[in-house]
Amino acid sequence: MNLIAHDIIIRPVITEKSSRLMEMNKYTFEVHPSANKIQIRKAIEEIFKVKVRNVNVLSVHAKPKRMGVFQGKTRSWKKAIVSLAQGERIEFFEGASI
């Protein structure tokens, strides 16, 4: 599959946990389900013009939910936690609050 950088990075994840990770220079993104670590690294470096030190990837599995008598599940998705090199920052996240 031929993905470009903006197809790989879907959206930033802004939660309490990701806000704490930002203090340690780690940023969290939702990524394309078929993207690998190398593609994610290149996409982040291309979009935000930063140097990536490390990429950790995990799959978030669907959880069962119910609304009254109806049962369903949340969607499953892929999350990437990107560590940046010393002194690098992503200005996109500055001032983001939950």
UniProtKB/TrEMBL annotation:
MF terms in GO: rRNA binding; structural constituent of ribosome
Keyword entries, A-Z: Ribonucleoprotein, Ribosomal protein, RNA-binding, rRNA-binding
InterPro entries to which the protein is assigned, alphabetical: Nucleotide-bd_a/b_plait_sf (IPR012677), Ribosomal_uL23-like (IPR013025), Ribosomal_uL23/eL15/eS24_sf (IPR012678)
Annotated Gene Ontology cellular component terms: ribonucleoprotein complex; ribosome
Pfam families found in the cross-reference section: Ribosomal_L23
Keyword Glycosyltransferase: no
Any one GO BP annotation for this protein: translation
NCBIfam families found in the cross-reference section: PRK05738.2-4 (NF004363), PRK05738.3-2 (NF004366)
Similarity-based family: Belongs to the universal ribosomal protein uL23 family.
Protein name: 50S ribosomal protein L23
Organism: bioreactor metagenome
Gene: rplW_12
